[in-house]
Specification:
The structure holds 2 protein chains of 2 kinds. Chain A is α/β, with parallel strands linked by helices. Chain A has helices at residues 23-32, 77-81, 96-100, 102-113, 129-132, 137-147, 163-173, 175-180, 185-194, and strands spanning 11-17, 45-53, 59-67, 86-92, 118-124, 151-154, 199-200, 213-215. In chain A, strand 2 (45-53) and strand 3 (59-67) form a beta hairpin. The longest helix of chain A has 12 residues, at 102-113. In chain A, 42% of the residues are buried. Classes of the chains: A alpha/beta, B mainly alpha. The complex binds guanosine-5'-triphosphate and magnesium ion. Chain A: It is a lipid-anchor. Chain A: Keywords: GTP-binding, Lipoprotein, Nucleotide-binding, Prenylation.
Chain lengths: 217, 749
């Protein structure tokens, strides 16, 4: 086990996307494993952090910045993109407009970070795919290829599908993580004990659909 | 005596001291015993020395007459006894005669023969005697002889018996000889044995003594040992409680590492130190003091060591990237936690250095974003607040990672540290943003800053441990103040401004400054979605509205009053135009609905004045002014009630007569047809055609109502009527419809 504590290392992940696509729901599912039907728009930018335990006793502390999709908060967001390592750009697969607006979000990200950022495309509400799908896998795949995102994935926070996998893949794609993101196992159990925010990451019961998941690295 | 007494024989041996053999008890069971007994029994039986020379002389016999006689007596007795026996054997009847004579002897004999000796013994004795008699060819008769012969033979006999006895004795004794020999040799052995025994005994004795001494010593030693053991235990437990081993001291003082062992020893030392108070309560508290001093010294040095380590680690947080360092630090912190002064001191140091670090970071950040400030203050503040936002959460995370020693992220200690570190950001943040607020002149920009700050209040409330909200609040209130002051500054500049005054010319149009003034503010007001402007208190909100509505009006009015070029009508028209402009601007803004009403009433006021002015002008041009005034004085025309008789007193007035009425009628016919154009012309500069129209209508209606009443009065008093009826005039003035409505609404006259 490595003797690294990484107390000063922060992994910043910013969640972007139009209003009501499910950014807060994704984070809530990941943090507390709950889901709420009622929509409460995010005001400004919320912060949450969580220690994630991966295989081989690796742990990682993620800082999650949940931005508001409402237009009136738009001006706040670039400041948060500025020092983020990962931009999780979300759309609603039942809302074509939210997908089309990804361009805007991607532009914002590139403006602030250039190519020095990991972009992840997330199509949420996959539980509604049968009746209401407006964005196909092909749509997102071509966008993914066009912009060079790290990967894209379809999720459902309602059905708890692919949420853990999303975060696990995010963690794994952090460049520093592979080199130094490990922590002492002692500490692992310790933290596990006293940190209510922690979860253990195991692959979702619903195995990811190979079609809905693509890693480009 | 001649008899060898067994007793005497045995007594002889007593002279030999070595012979300690106990006297056989009872005497050997030899036949001799009988003899002895016999001899004892015969002890009285003495033979005089005289008997040895029985036939010497008679003198001797006579000398010894008594003796002789006694002997005789005995002999006689014995003989009698024997003859008695013989007689008894032969002739028991004759025995009685002799028995009396021999009674003395017989009693003696019986004394000898009776009693203790049983028959067997007696028989044995006598058979022995019998045998001996035969052997020694002795004659019983001789023996029984009372004379000398008898005495001799008896003495012989006695000798013989004695020698025999001796022989027998010696024979028996011979038998004992080997035994004696054996006994003698045994005696030697036994002596040796005794010697040995006694020597052994003495040895044993001495050993015994020795061992007693030894035992006593051992006992003593045992006791001592117990004491010593007790002492040892005491000392050991004392040792355990009150001393550290050299190694432990080494661990505390020398070894560089602060590992588990260090803390174990330290906690022992702590306990030890605490326990010292027990020692101090003893009568002699020197030991307690010594130990206390020593342990205090050690504790202090250990504490120093820990603090040094803490300070060093906390001074360089990067060192805590080593897990082991972090763990040790947390152990140190956990230890120091209960030592309030040390802990607080160290924490204060850390807070100082950390907040300085954070401040430097913050200033660096500001430094590197200087260009943005100049270009766009909103963006700069947005970035700055976002930066502070992440600074807060990062710092919180870092502090929690380091100081979460009680497994509670919401530990007040942690919150306190975070708060104190961030507290020092208050000043620079406030300074930076205040600077921007105060250097900014655009109300709208400040309003945006205000909105941003307001939003961050909400956002900062959601993250724990920060007292920066206070700063935001104070910045927000600065924004409010700043907006107030920018507006009032602007207004006071306008108030003083000559050009603003000069702007007012005869075209009677509102000045440009009011248009500019509202362009900013209305933009701001448009975006407000809160109940009060800028979330102000209702009081301040009212003040703000006064500032943006009433103040400009006042300033404008003062400017108008100062302008001598305006006549009364111009004055009213320009004021109207001004208010009309404001009203048109603020009407869409719901926050200002009260102000709209207020302006509206002002506008109505002016319209009324304007109407009155035009009406008076019309009356003047028709020379009706005086009549109107007089009759109005009698009873105001505006009164709903009307009766011609009331106006009877008008007759008193010189101006009221038929002639003058005729002149007026002419005037009416001359002027009235053009009056509509006249008034329109006069109100040309009023910006609201609707108001112009209303005013004209109102002037004419007032006029016709007056004419109608005057006509009735004229008819009554002068029996005169104007050429045109009120209806004709209304039609001429184009207000017949309005007049119809007015008439309809009037009570019948
Ligand atoms: N059916 C379905 N509904 C979802 C899913 N995820 C979120 N929702 C619903 O979508 C609505 C919006 O979710 P939020 O998570 O608040 O959306 P958001 O992106 O955070 O919205 P803003 O904060 O305004 O930007 C809520 O009513 C959720 O219940 C999903 O996977 N499936
Ligand atoms: Mg949200």
């Amino acid at each position: 086990m490595s003797d690294k504590s990484n107390i000063l290392k922060k992994y910043k992940i910013v969640f972007l996307g139009d209003q009501s696509v499910g950014k807060t729901s994704l984070i809530t599912r990941f943090m507390y494993d709950t889901f709420d039907e009622t929509y409460a728009a995010t005001i400004g930018i919320d912060f949450l952090s969580k220690t994630m335990y991966l295989e081989e006793g690796k742990t990682i502390r993620l800082q999650l910045w949940d931005t508001a999709g409402q237009e009136r908060f738009r001006s706040l967001i670039p400041s948060y993109i500025r020092d983020s390592h990962v931009a999780v750009i979300c759309y609603d697969i039942t809302n074509k407009k939210s997908f089309l607006n990804l361009d805007k979000w991607i532009k914002d990200v590139k403006l602030e970070r250039g190519d020095d950022v990991i972009i992840v495309l997330v199509g949420n509400k996959s539980d509604l795919a049968n009746d209401k799908r407006q964005v196909t896998i092909e749509d997102v795949e071509s966008l993914h290829l066009k912009i060079g995102s790290k990967f894209f994935i379809e999720t459902s926070t309602k059905a708890n599908h692919n949420v853990k996998l999303l975060f696990k893949k995010i963690a794994q794609s952090l460049p520093e993580f592979n080199n130094e993101g490990t922590e002492n196992e002692n500490n692992t159990s310790n933290n596990n004990h006293n940190n209510p925010e922690t979860i253990d990451i195991t692959i979702d019961k619903n195995a990811p659909n190979p079609q809905t998941l693509n890693t480009c690295c | 005596m001649d008899f060898i007494d067994f007793d005497t024989f045995t007594k002889d041996n007593s002279t030999d001291n070595d012979w300690n053999l106990p006297q056989p008890q009872p005497a050997l069971s030899l036949p001799i015993t009988n003899i002895e007994n016999l001899s004892k029994k015969l002890s009285q039986f003495k033979l005089t020395k005289n008997l040895i020379i029985p036939n010497d002389s008679t003198t001797t016999i006579t000398v010894n007459n008594d003796e002789d006689e006694l002997m005789k007596k005995y002999a006689k007795l014995s003989i009698n006894l024997i003859s008695d026996e013989k007689k008894q054997e032969q002739d028991p009847e004759n025995g009685n005669e002799k028995s009396s004579s021999n009674s003395t002897l017989s009693t003696r004999l019986s004394r000898v023969l009776n009693d203790s000796l049983n028959d067997n013994d007696q028989r044995e004795i006598f058979s022995y005697i019998e045998n001996n008699l035969e052997e020694n060819e002795l004659n019983v008769q001789d023996l029984l002889d009372t004379g000398f012969v008898g005495s001799v033979s008896r003495s012989n006999f006695k000798n013989r018996i004695e020698s025999n006895l001796i022989k027998n004795h010696s024979k028996i004794l011979k038998e004992y000889q080997p035994v004696i020999k054996q006994l003698k040799s045994t005696e030697g052995k036994l002596n040796k044995f005794n010697e040995l025994n006694s020597s052994t005994e003495s040895i044993i004795d001495s050993h015994c003594q020795n061992s007693n001494k030894f035992n006593a010593r051992i006992n003593e030693l045992n006791k001592q040992q117990k004491l010593v053991l007790l002492k040892k235990q005491l000392l050991q437990s004392f040792n355990a409680k009150f001393t550290l081993t050299e190694y432990e001291e080494f661990v505390l003082t020398q070894s560089g590492e602060m590992n588990d062992e260090f803390f174990k020893v330290l906690s022992k030392l702590q306990k030890l130190n605490e326990n010292c108070y027990i020692l101090l309560s003893l009568d002699n508290c020197k030991l307690g003091n010594d130990i206390l001093n020593k342990s205090n010294q050690l504790l202090n040095s250990s504490n120093d060591k820990i603090i040094k380590f803490c300070n060093k680690s906390l001074g360089n947080l990067y060192s805590l990237n080593l897990k082991s360092k972090l763990v040790t630090l947390q152990k140190c912190l956990r230890y120091l936690q209960n030592k309030y002064n040390y802990f607080q001191n160290m924490i204060d140091n850390f807070i100082n250095s950390r907040s300085k670090f954070i401040n430097d970071e913050f200033l660096n950040y500001c430094e590197s974003n200087l260009e943005i400030v100049q270009q766009e203050s909103i963006r700069f503040i947005g970035d700055l607040l976002a930066y502070v936002h992440s600074l807060i959460v990062n710092e919180s995370e870092t502090i929690i990672a380091i100081f979460n020693i009680n497994e509670n992220e919401n530990d007040p200690i942690i919150q306190d540290i975070i708060n104190k570190i961030l507290m020092n950001l208050q000043k620079p943040i406030k300074l930076k943003i205040d600077h921007l607020i105060y250097s900014e002149t655009k109300v709208l920009t400040i309003f945006q800053i205000f909105n941003l700050l307001d939003l961050y209040v909400i956002m900062f409330k959601k993250i724990k441990g920060n007292n920066l909200i206070e700063v935001l609040h104070s910045l927000i209130s600065n924004c409010q103040d700043r907006i107030f002051s920018i507006i009032s500054n602007k207004l006071s500049i306008i108030k003083q401004s000559n050009s603003a005054r000069l702007e007012l010319d005869t075209d009677l149009q509102p000045p440009n400054w009011i248009i500019e003034f509202y362009s900013d503010i209305l933009n701001l007001l448009d975006q407000i979605k809160t109940k009060t402007i800028l979330n102000l208190t209702t009081d301040s909100h009212e003040k703000f509205l006064d500032l943006i509505i009433n103040s400009p009006v006042e300033i404008f009015n003062s400017h108008v009053e100062l302008n001598k070029a305006f006549n009364k009508k111009d004055n009213l028209i320009i004021k109207f135009n001004f208010l009309d402009l404001i009203q048109s601007k603020v009407i869409p803004i719901s926050l200002l609905s009260d102000k709209v009403i207020e302006i509206n009433s002002q506008i109505n006021d002016i319209t009324e004045k304007l109407t009155t002015l035009e009406y008076v002008n019309l009356l003047k041009s028709l020379h009706l002014e005086n009549i109107y005034n007089v009759s109005n004085m009698i009873c105001p025309f505006s009164d709903e009630f009307f009766d011609t008789s009331i106006y009877e007193p008008i007759k008193e007035n010189k101006l009221y007569n038929l002639e003058s009425m005729k002149q007026i009628d002419e005037k009416i016919q001359e002027i009235l047809p053009n009056s509509i154009i006249e008034i329109q012309q006069s109100l040309l500069k009023v910006n609201s055609p609707m108001i112009v129209n209303d005013t004209i209508n109102q002037v004419f209606i007032n006029f016709i109502k007056f004419i109608k009443k005057l006509n009735l009065i004229n008819k009554e008093i002068l029996d005169f009527e104007f050429t045109w009826s009120d209806y004709e005039m209304a039609t001429m003035l184009g207000i017949e419809e309005v007049y119809d409505k007015e008439i309809a609404s009037l009570p019948d006259t």
